[in-house]
Design goal:
Length: 340
């Protein structure tokens, strides 16, 4: 293999540039020329493709985002776009591809291989951490550190004013960020989409009530953006009524969204090492003849998973983590008499 192409697609994640660096270095050691499609699949279809060298990635190790640019392009999986992308690859004699991105991006990579046969290796780059086949996606550790850092700041003002803060974090339909940051920040609980179908609003309100009755002066709840049974307004109304009937009518309840600050920033040491490893092994997989796989981290070892399987997600693992660390207090709240 003499020519490969790399692109970053979908939502950006800290550590993508580190993965690019690993790809370039491993490729150069093996006399492989690397090309980049700028702005993801959109650039691949439009022919926005240029050589990528060691000079291009010099000094990017500490940068968040992606120097290649990225874009969401859901129509890429349609045959005309797949074939146009393949023609652009053939025109440059490119023999393999590496795609850094999340669920939708890797589904696009799988579709390209299925339609054209070109070897494709995926690297899981997504702060959502919702991909099957890897314990950690690139960018998750940095996002968690950002969340914890900012929740600690919010706790300062929450404790000063005796407030209850419900803080929304990213994750799309996956509750990993909310759950792990909730554990890390000492939140009363985390509201996650994995168990929203069985969410008991009375038990939730009672859980908050019991926390304050145990002499808590303030409280933090972490809510995943994919937790949707109630709007912030509805949840706030439920809490206000329940707590007000029990002597906490003056409790100030605030809702805060951390937003896109979770995507940005210099990657953590963990993400820098992970990105380097995944980039290096992605090139090695292509050299070894892999055609339709994702490289990932499982039990601290670099492994591979079929691209067709990465969309299975992590629901059961997240529910297991929730049961281990947070479910007990919710169960106790259900058993307690609401007025006690």
């Amino acid at each position: 293999m003499k020519k490969i192409l790399v692109l970053t697609s979908g939502g950006d994640a800290p550590g993508m540039n580190t993965a690019l660096r690993g790809i370039i270095r491993e490729a150069s050691f093996n006399d492989i020329h690397v090309y980049a499609a700028y702005d993801g699949y959109k650039g691949l279809v439009e022919g926005n493709i240029l050589p990528l060298t060691n000079q291009d990635i010099a000094g990017t190790l500490q940068l968040g985002g992606t120097i290649l640019g990225t874009a969401r392009f859901p129509r890429f999986k349609e045959k005309p776009y797949l074939m146009k992308a393949y023609q652009n690859l053939q025109h440059r004699d490119i023999e393999g591809m590496i795609v850094i991105g999340g669920n939708g991006s890797l589904a696009g990579a799988h579709a390209l291989h299925e339609e054209t046969g070109i070897p494709v290796v995926g690297i899981p780059g997504s702060i959502d951490n919702d991909l099957h086949g890897t314990d950690m996606c690139l960018g998750v550790d940095t996002a968690l550190n950002t969340i914890v850092y900012n929740v600690d700041k919010i706790r300062d003002t929450a404790s000063s004013h005796g407030r209850l803060f419900v803080i929304e974090v990213m994750g799309r339909d996956c509750g990993y960020l909310a759950l792990v940051s909730g554990i890390s920040c000492g939140a009363v609980t985390a509201l996650i989409p994995e168990n929203q179908d069985t969410f008991d609003k009375t038990a939730f309100c009672n859980l908050i009530y019991k926390a304050f009755r145990r002499s808590k002066k303030h409280a933090i709840v972490i809510k995943a953006e994919g937790f949707t049974p109630f709007s912030d307004e509805e949840l706030g109304q439920e809490l206000s009524e329940y707590l007000g009937e029990r002597g906490y009518e003056h409790l100030d309840i605030r809702f805060t969204k951390l937003g896109h600050i979770q995507r940005g920033g210099s990657p953590s040491a963990f993400d820098r090492v992970l990105g380097s490893k995944l980039g290096i092994h992605a090139v090695r997989q292509l050299m070894a003849g892999a055609k339709d796989v994702m490289v990932g981290l499982v039990r601290n070892e670099i492994t591979t998973c079929p691209l067709a399987d990465v969309g299975k997600g992590k629901r059961e693992r997240i529910l297991s983590l929730y049961q281990e660390y947070m479910a007990q207090e919710f169960l106790m709240a259900k058993k307690l008499t609401p007025g006690s």
